[in-house]
Amino acid sequence: MRVLVTGATGQVGSEIVRLLEERAESRVRGRLEVVAAGREVMDLTSRDSVVSAICAAEPDVVFHPGAWTSVDACEAEPDRAFLVNALGTRHVAEGARLVSAHVVYFSTDYVFDGASPRPYNEWDATNPLSVYGRSKLAGESELDPGSTIVRTSWVVGTQGHNMAKTVLKAAREREGPLRVVEDQRGSPTEASDLAAKAVSLGLSRRPGLFHVTNQGDTTWYGFARAVLRAAGLDEARVEPIATSELDPPRAAPRPANSVLDNAALRLSGEQLLPHWESSVARLVRALQ
């Protein structure tokens, strides 16, 4: 089996590559080959680049976490957001179709408006508030039937920029309180946990839409306190504020409720990811 990973140096892509390479090393030589397609190999904004890279690799499975995930920047550059996240996914789907590869696409909780009083399951109606959310939902629509769509939320990991790193950096470099919003609720998801479940779904070619997050939910305020607690720092430094109090204000609106019900996994009898607090504690240890 040959597997291609887009966005291979990103927060999720790098974890997928690592897990697949570990599998390859544990198997008989040649049983699993991993093609890590970073930007220098595959430019998602170029149809020729994407289709050529996929056709050259001839993968059996394409994992597609590659995306432009700067939520606020997407508001200022909607064409770029749709070019990368929607049209780029169209290119991936086209290339995969030409070599009969199964696609695993990574989407987001931002496809919902956050107005629901309960967690969102896979069959709930979408209504994105932001350009980023609309562009990722558009990417979902570009996939062939039988593809795998993995929606996730609040991803943190050892690579890239994320809230866990931001909280730790602020706690170590600043004095005084850390003001964090308390009116946004979601499920923090550790990148290696997410990657492991996505790899399992992808290698078994499981079709359909799956919500994949760590279990449990919290606010960003609760998350920040948990990060400091895991790091052995004073969690009392974290003070709750409303999103409207952020200075400067954020360009993109965020859903107040980002909690995803992993219903498709749960009802299929699949093992769910661990509770977010245990995984975030493990991540903090790795970051120290």
Task: Give a summary of the structure in a few sentences.
It is built from ten helices and twelve strands. The protein has helices spanning 13-26, 47-57, 71-76, 78-99, 131-141, 163-173, 191-203, 220-230, 263-267, 276-287; strands at residues 2-6, 33-37, 61-64, 102-108, 148-152, 155-156, 178-181, 185-186, 189-190, 208-211, 218-219, 238-241.
Characterization of this structure:
With 288 residues, the chain is α/β, with parallel strands linked by helices. The protein has a single domain, classed as NAD(P)-binding Rossmann-like Domain (Rossmann fold, 3-Layer(aba) Sandwich). It contains 10 helices and 12 strands. The protein has helices at residues 13-26, 47-57, 71-76, 78-99, 131-141, 163-173, 191-203, 220-230, 263-267, 276-287, and strands at 2-6, 33-37, 61-64, 102-108, 148-152, 155-156, 178-181, 185-186, 189-190, 208-211, 218-219, 238-241. The strands form 4 sheets. The chain has a 6-stranded parallel beta sheet with strand order 2-1-3-4-5-10, with helices on both faces. The model has no long low-confidence stretch (mean pLDDT 96).
Order of helices and strands: EHEHEHHEHEEHEEEHEEHEHH
Q: Shape, please?
A: globular
- Tally of alpha and pi helices: 10
CATH architecture: 3-Layer(aba) Sandwich
Radius of gyration from CA coordinates: 19 Å
Any idea what the CATH superfamily is called? NAD(P)-binding Rossmann-like Domain
Q: What is the residue-mean pLDDT, rounded to a whole number? A: 96
* Helix proportion: 40-55%
Q: What share of residues are in beta strands?
A: 15-25%
The description of the largest β-sheet is: 6 strands, parallel
Major sheet: arrangement of strands? 2-1-3-4-5-10
Quaternary structure annotation: single chain
CATH class: Alpha Beta
Distance between the termini: 36 Å
Helices and strands: which structural class? Answer: alpha/beta
The overall strand count is: 12
Low-confidence stretches: none
